[in-house]
Amino acid sequence: MAKVLFVTGTGPGSGKALVALGLMDLLAASSDRVGFFRPVIASRDGTDRVLEMVASRYSLNVSTDALYGVTADVARSLMGEGTGDELLKRVLERYKAIESQFDVVLCLGPDFSGVTASLELRFSLEFSRQLGARLVLVLNGREREPSELVDAVHLVLDSLSDRQGDVLAVAVNGVEPADLVEAEHLFAARPWRDVPVYLIPENPVLAMPTVGEVATALGARWLSQGNDGGSREVARYLVAAMELPHFLDHLEESSLVITPGDRADIILGSLLADSSTAYPRVAALLLSGGLEPAPEVLRVFGGLDRSPVPVLSVQTDTFTTAMAVAALEGHLTADNPRKIAAALGLVESRIDGADLTRRLEMPRPQRVTPLMFEFELIQRARRRRMRIVLPEGTEERVLRAAEILRLRDVADLTLLGDERAVRREIEHLGLRLTDVRIVDPLKSEKRERYAETYFALRRHKGVSRGGAYDALTDVSYFGTMMVYQGDADGMVSGAVHTTQHTIRPAFEVIRTAPGRSLISSVFLMCLSDRVLVYGDCAVNVHPDAEQLAEIAISSAQTAAYFGIEPRIAMLSYSTGDSGQGEDVDRVREATRLVRERSPELKVEGPIQYDAAVDMAVARTKLPASEVAGQATVFVFPDLNTGNNTYKAVQRSSGAVAIGPILQGLAKPVNDLSRGCTVTDIVNTVVITAIQAQAVAGG
Length: 698
Hints:
globular; 6-stranded mixed β-sheet; alpha/beta; Rossmann fold; 23 strands; 7-stranded parallel β-sheet; Udp-n-acetylmuramoylalanyl-d-glutamate--2,6- Diaminopimelate Ligase, Chain: A, domain 1
């Protein structure tokens, strides 16, 4: 029988979906068989935004149709007929049909509304009792003083105690950030038995609807989608009924401008204001009354190379439109990764995941999934914030990754580039990076000092003082010098620049760590059930035996540092003593050197890939080996083999490839593929932060 965690609100607007998402991430990081179930969903057609979000993020291997009990209209009908037992029976039958597929299931309580809102907690309590579930209660903490929060929590817990509710924890959502410390002290002074209370601060962004949500809710027609697909948040709405100069005086950040479609002055003025650094960013234009702008104005939309402002049109009048917009609230949805990152960042920072899983007595996972591995990496990076410099400050993927990293509170980031250009790109993309540090190498007061240091390091190679000063105009060299001088703890680049452009300055300036003579690279290959280490796939073209041995030892250390037990396979086209020739002998000699220099390591070589990963093949070819059939670290004989193999495995199996991770440097610098995704950049920054912790003794 699966363990069940039941998340339910104690009233409307509790924000239980936010808490549920954070807990799903926590559970998925602790178990490889996590399920999700909603007893009641709001829609009539079987769709549910929370269900869709969870299904898209986690590999549940179950149809979404099987992950809910009944729709809300069916539930209300049964409750209205006084057949609550029948409702409970139907929902339980649906749940039992999927239970056996999971070790732990998170159930999210229903969203009853109106006159039935009071039924949510009662139904959730009875349903959870039938399942033997542990409850996580979510309370709305908005507009409540700290003492009121304590009283509210105690009142609910006392009530549930009388009804034998098994409460695992309480989450109070939407607490005013300024009240957090006082509230924590009050709860510590007045604990309720041993039930932990987690206080989650208010984040206004999560409640803001996106432009896309506005368009969907109002049935609006897109006249121009801007450059971000409707993902901008709407912080407020502004009805523009006055002349342009007065309207501009009232314009605030992320405003949805509502105006009749024939107000060309407001339309063009809003576009100009959005592109001007003198005015706040406009979320979107919403044109009312079914009126379209004049053809000359529409031509302006089409003639803008990068029109960042979405433009929508609705048939309703301005007043009706404004009232409809005022009633909208933002939601967590599968297509909004920034809100998901913000939600996860909040929950991760306020809920003690280790304590919660201990209380829940989570089963030990039998395998390591990519999600579990990535979660652990993020948690490690968060334990000690490091300073990471990103030289490619105007690249869209880098900026989107930076926003996610900031929302997850992973690292302190510095972007390099012309500050106006970087800010302009951030605004064009509609990102929230107002607090990110931006450094212009051309204007930095540290350029002179960096140049003198670089000159001292490289003058024996013919670099002049003037040449050193010029070199520091290059963002790769400037970022590397930031790391070398201790103004940053690590650097990630390569989304735009070549590998050589990224790592050459590191070779010249940072150089190898003590005890290392070679810089090499590995990829962390996150397969469906385990994480493997591949090296060298990016740096050394044709390493000799000495270099292969050092790559193997460095890769084993990297594996161990990231929680992977190193069992090294020195790959070749031959296994054991069956093959002869220069290439096989080179691998055989490298294996001997590894055993000689690091006798504590488990290593096998030469060995073919199939014998390294397949236990059946291993029993035939190397039956006495400690590595064969269960290798975790794969050392390729040359760059051609390594690079092609990691890409083949990545594309054919759907594995997540994290890297290349450079090893052997005194301080961490990592390279990106020019085809990297936003997720790739996020993962590489996380890895770099963890490497920096190791250098700093963390």
